[in-house]
Every structure is written in C-alpha cells, then in structure tokens.
Specification:
Layout lengths: L2 H10 L8 H21 L5 H12 L6 H19 L8 H17 L5 H19 L5 H25 L6 H22 L18 H21 L6 H29 L7 H27 L10 H15 L4 H33 L23 H6 L5 H23 L5 H10 L4 H28 L3 H18 L4 H20 L4 H22 L9 H21 L6 H27 L8 H21 L11 H19 L18 H22 L8
Helix pairs in contact: 2-3, 2-7, 2-18, 3-4, 3-7, 4-6, 4-7, 5-6, 5-15, 6-16, 8-9, 8-10, 8-11, 9-10, 9-22, 10-13, 10-23, 11-12, 11-13, 12-13, 15-16, 16-20, 17-19, 17-20, 17-22, 18-19, 21-22, 21-23, 21-24, 22-23, 23-25, 24-25
Length: 705
C-alpha cells in the first residue's frame, strides 16, 4: 500500500464506537452560554469565559469522576495562572525563551499518561495565546484570569454536577466491556465450521481478540482503582466490581485454552454431532457473559440459570466412544474441551451470582471458584514517572525537548515576520508534533486537510450571514458536533473544530476574513513541524521496534517458566506473568503499527515481521493451553520444555536486538511426557516456536539497520 493511500485511509477511518453526544452538549453549553451572556451584556472581555469553557471541556477525556475532576480542575487553576502572563509584554528574545521553557515543561506532562499529556498540550496552546494577545495592564490580566476561573468552574459544573453523578458508572462500563469482548470471542469460536479444516487454517493466523481483552482488562483495572481510591472506606459495590473484573481475567485463559483445544481436536464427519454440542455450549456461555455485561451497564436484575451444555458434550462424547473406541489423542482432546467448558460454566455461574448481588448490595459470596485474587500494585510516587523519563534515551524526553525548541523557533519566526494571528503557527506546531515521526506526518496531514475544509466552511458561513446571533448559534452547533464525533474520527473533529474556532475569533475581533489567514498559518506551522521532526532528535520507530519485540519474546519465555513451576494456572505468579506478556505484546504490536506509518519499502518485506508477532502471540496461546491442563500428581514435567523454549526465545530476542540472524534451532526438542493431550500440546508449541524462529531469520534488513 502506498504511503499516500495509507494516509488517505487514516483520514477517512471511523472508529466503531458510539458518538459522545453528552460531551458535545456540554461543550456547546460551556462555550455558548458565556458567549451569549457576553453578547447580551455587551462585554467583549467576557468571551474569555467561553474560551476557558472550551479548553477545560477539551481536557475532559472521560473515565473516573475523580480523574476527570483533577484534570479539569488543574486546567482551570493553571489556565488562570497562565492568564497572568498576558500582563507581561516581553521583548522577542524573552518570549522565545519563555516559550522554550514552558512548552518543554508541558511536553514532560506526557510522562504521567495520555490525559496529563493532552492537558500539557492545551496549556501550552493557551500560553501561546496569552503571550500573543497581551493584556493592557496587570488589572486587565487579573480580570482575564478571573474570567478563566469562571469559565473553568462553569465547565466543571456542567460535566460533574449538572449531569447525573454516578461514581461507579465509568468502572461498571469498563468492566462490562471486558465481558462483551469475551462474549464476542465465544460467539466467534462457536461459529467455526463443524467439519473440515480448523478456522485458523484458512484465515490469517492471528488472534485479534486477545489484544482487545488485555487492553479492556487494563483499562478496567485503572478505572476501578481510581474510583475506589476516591471513596476511602467504601467496600460494598466496589468489592463486587473488583470480583467481576478479576472474574473476567480468570475466564481469559480458559477461553484461550478451549480455542487451542478445538483447533487440535479432529474434525472428521463422525465428530460433527459432538462439535455441534460444543458450539451450543459456547452460545450459552456468550449469552451468560452478555447478561453480566447488561447487569453492569444497565443494572438489570440477573440470576444464574441452568446451563446444560457441558453435560450434553460429555453425553455426546460417551455415545461416540461407545459406538467405536476413539483414538486416545482424539478422546483426550474432546475430554479436555468438556472439562474447560465445565470450568467456564462454573466461573460464569458464580459471576452471574455476584452480578445479581451488585444492585441489591448483598455481600460477595465467601467461596468463589476463581482462585486467589491478584494483589493490587502499589501506586507509584508522584515523581517516579518524571525520573524515569529524565534521560536522553527516553522518547518523552526527546519529544518534550523537540516540542519546546520547535515552539520557540515558531515564536521567533512569527515575531520576526510580524505575522497576523501568528499564534496559529505556533499552535499548529505544538499540536502536530508527536513523539513518533510517522505519527507527526499523519497528524500534520490531518490538521492541514482539516483546516482547509474547516476554514472553507467558516468562509462559506461568513459569506452567507454575519449576524452575530446566527454566528453564535453556528459556533455552538459546531462545537457540539465536533466533540460528539471526536471518539469516532479525529480528522472529522478537526474539520468541525476549525470553523468553530475561526468564527469565535472573528466574532471576538470583528475581522470577518480570518479563514484565509488561518489556512496560511496552519500550512506554515505544519511545514515547520515536519522539518523539526526530521532535524531535531528524530525518533524513527524502526530503531525501537527490535527492542519491543525482544521484550515480548522474553516475556513469552518467562510465562512458560512460571507455568512449569506452578501447580495451578490461577496462581498469582502465573497470572502476573500472563499479564506482563500481554502488555509486552501490546507494546510490540503498537510499535509495529507506528513502523507501518513511516515504512517506505515494499509492503511484502514486512510479512516476516507480521509472522513474528503473530506466532509470538500464538505461542502464548499454546502456553496458556498447557497451563490449564492441571499441575497435580501425574501431570507432565514441563521444566525441560520450558528451558528449551525459553533458550530459543532468548536467542531470537538477542538476535533481533543485535540486528543479526538467530542461531539455528537445536536439533532435537525435549519430548513432553504425559498423556496424549499433553504430548499434542507440546508438539503444537514446538511448531509455533519453529515458525517464529523462521520468521526471525527472514526479517527485512531495512528494518534492522
């Protein structure tokens, strides 16, 4: 695929999520009400209240109420403080130095996550506006800060108080998402063909649901932890939600193992009735998982119901075995599938009981079949993320420095050329620059295209009507729609936000020809951002990708070692190793997506990279299947297999890091002793390892140099 076509697809891509209608209405009221009051009372300075409402609304990224309140409150207080800077009328060199220091500091806010990082971007932009539109004197600056406080508080009232306040609502929705993903996977496996080749034989051998469930589980954990921290001493509803989140995590390895087992199980016509019963059981499982999700989302009353799927599977297996003695590998595979379905039903029934108690406040049952709960990780200290990124090797460190220097250069250019509304140049630089060069190009093209389209919309509106009342209504509508579609499409958000901001500026200044000025300044800012991303500490993703892959491969090996040493797949050490492995694979796959955005070579050369990532994940699934087989007396000794696999993975990881071909595979892998199922699982794991090793041998040289 050509880079231009890839960028066009990115611009037109729409995420499969719901529009944020509530956020859109809040944005319209946060900006429109202060503007209407200012117009009615003929108070031009009061438009700063609307600007504050816009900025504070933008940093409301959803999630727990506590986190939202902190982000919006920080923007309100810091924005009011930045407004005082407008009292200064620094010379050009001082403005450049001030921009360098402040924007660099704002760039470091990304150390604390996406929301603080976005807050830093918004604060940097507001500081640029304050310096470019200085107050007449200190009293004027003080009034501007006061108006910003009023606008910020107004936006917070709309977002946190006037809308229904349900403290656990974000946590409930995030946990419900976990059960939705599990139900989708159960349905997907349940629709596999009843006979013929396995599903993975004629589809891309990837497991796209596993990254989604890991991301959903991590999001649910962070949202629930933040919610419970804000309600010290509360243990009722939060305890139910914690059990439901842990329960979703406990279901994941069972569903992975069932998928692997069904892929290994024979598919001849005589097994058709047996497989049909398995699929009926999966349909029952999916229905129960969705009932749990509905209980979380809508508070619907649920109760456990009798699910007979596993019994039907066992009956079909016994009938088939009685008719003609089944080969031991086939019987072992189908018996294991029955056992996994039984455990899935047992877990799901217990979780349905917990979900039923959620609304009525009944205590969580003492005995749950989910295994020991994972201990909550201690919260990091406030300075720890900053210390971790205060080194030249950090992506965030280089990005913050590049952002500050680029903004300072843009300020010098604007001051030197005396550009009209030159702060749009600086704002474009700050918004376009991303930590990764491929994303910078993508964001630059999106912003330029969005500005061109949005400015054309603004110019058309101004040409048709200049009535301030109509313009104000148009601004409110544009803000509402822009914020509503932001989760669906960032380019669409940009297209709709641009005319709203242009009209807001025109309404405030009385200059009805600003659309063309914004286009020129945006083009200049986008070009400057691209130049700076190439010249100032560039961060091409292909230089980081090998390290990300190596980390994921070593995490795979560590996961197998933990499985081999444990007595149960529910042990905390195994669950934590599985979590670390999932996160490492997520990071590697995210890095590969960034490689795609900047890749200039033929697309065919990336096939070994995709195979490497795919089989790293499939190897993980094979390990998970081994972990669910039971580690009691008579279980196979996994230690030799774990040592062999971990050694190969470590060699492949070192080879990828050192930009060389891995050493050949050892001639013989250790056999996995045990029953027929264990031997088959071991052979499957070795095959996945062999394909992964072969993919590492074929990695493209351009990616490793």
């Amino acid at each position: 695929m050509s880079p231009l076509r890839r960028q066009l697809q990115s611009f037109l891509h729409v995420e499969p999520v719901r529009p944020a209608i509530g956020a859109g209405l809040r944005a319209a009221l946060a900006v429109g009400v202060p503007m209407a009051v200012a117009a009615t009372l003929h108070l031009p300075a009061a438009t700063w209240v609307g600007l504050a409402g816009l900025f504070v609304t933008l940093v409301d990224r959803g999630g727990p109420y506590r986190d939202r309140a902190l982000a919006m409150g920080a923007m309100t207080l810091l924005g009011a403080g930045v407004g005082l800077v407008s009292a200064a009328h620094p010379p050009a060199w001082a403005a450049v130095a001030l921009t360098l220091g402040w924007v660099t500091a704002c760039g470091f806010a990304r150390s604390y996550g996406d929301t603080p990082g976005f807050l830093g971007v918004v604060l940097a932009n507001y500081s640029v506006v304050s310096l470019s539109l200085p107050a007449h004197d200190f009293a004027d600056a003080l009034a501007r800060s006061g108006l910003f406080l009023v606008g910020g508080v107004w936006a917070m009232l709309l977002a946190l108080l006037l809308w229904p306040l349900r403290p656990y609502r974000p946590a409930r929705l995030s946990i419900a998402r976990c059960y939705d993903v599990l139900a989708e996977r159960a349905d997907e496996v349940g629709r596999w063909p009843l006979e013929g080749p396995a599903a993975s034989a004629f589809t891309v051998p990837a497991v796209p649901w596993e990254p989604r469930i890991r991301q959903a589980l991590e999001t649910a954990s962070s949202v629930l932890a933040a919610t419970r921290r804000s309600r010290v001493g509360e243990s009722g509803r939060g305890e139910h939600l914690l059990v439901l989140r842990e329960g979703a995590d406990a279901l994941v390895p069972l569903l992975v193992a069932l998928t692997e087992t069904l892929e290994m199980a024979p598919r001849e016509p005589r097994y058709l009735a047996l497989r049909a019963e398995v699929q009926r059981s999966l349909a029952e499982l999916a229905a129960d998982l969705r009932r749990i999700a509905l209980a979380l989302e809508k508070g619907e009353d649920v109760h456990a119901r009798r699910a007979c799927g596993p019994e039907r599977v066992l009956h079909a297996l016994e009938m088939l075995d009685a008719e003609a003695r089944l080969p031991e590998p086939a019987r072992a595979a189908w018996a294991h599938a029955h056992a996994l379905l039984g455990r899935l039903r047992e877990f799901t029934q217990a979780l349905l009981d917990v979900a039923a108690r959620l609304e009525h406040g009944k205590p969580v049952p003492e005995a749950l079949p989910l295994g020991p709960r994972a201990e909550a990780a201690p919260a990091p200290s406030l300075l720890e993320p900053l210390r971790d990124n205060l080194n030249p090797g950090s992506v965030i460190f280089r990005h913050a420095l590049r952002l500050g220097v680029s903004a300072a250069l843009a300020t010098a250019l604007v001051r030197g050329l005396g550009l009209d509304h030159g702060y749009w140049v600086i704002i474009t630089v700050i918004i376009v620059l991303q930590p990764y060069s491929g994303l910078t190009l993508q964001r630059s093209l999106q912003r330029v295209a969005g500005t061109l389209l949005g400015a054309a919309v603004a110019a058309g509106l101004v040409a048709l009507v200049r009535d301030p009342v109509v313009i104000l209504v148009a601004i409110m509508v544009l803000f509402a729609v822009a914020m509503s579609v932001q989760p669906l499409s960032l380019p669409a958000f940009q297209v709709l936000l641009t005319p709203a901001i242009v009209l807001l500026s025109e309404l405030q200044s009385g200059d009805w020809d600003l659309a063309g000025v914004r286009i020129v300044n945006t083009l200049l800012g986008g070009a400057l951002a691209l130049v700076c991303s190439r010249l100032l500490w560039p961060s091409p993703e292909h230089l980081r990708f090998p390290e990300q892959v190596a980390t994921a491969l070593r995490a795979d090996g560590d996961y197998l070692r933990q499985v081999a040493a444990a007595r149960s797949d529910a042990e905390p050490a195994v669950r934590e190793a599985r979590r670390r492995m999932g996160l490492a694979l997520l990071s590697a796959e995210a890095s590969f997506q960034r490689v795609l955005s900047e890749w200039k070579g033929p697309a065919q050369q990336l096939e070994p990279v995709m195979a490497l990532l795919t089989y790293a994940r499939r190897l993980t699934s094979a390990v998970t299947a081994l972990s669910t087989g039971g580690r009691g007396p008579g279980a196979p000794d996994l230690e030799p297999m774990a040592r062999y696999t971990a050694a190969v993975l470590d060699e492949v990881a070192s080879a990828v890091e050192q930009r060389r071909a891995p050493a050949p595979l050892p001639p013989d892998s250790p056999p996995l002793e045990g029953d027929a199922l264990s031997r088959t699982q071991g052979e499957r794991l070795v095959r996945q390892l062999s394909v992964l090793h072969h993919a590492a041998e074929r990695l493209p040289p351009l990616l490793l140099t």
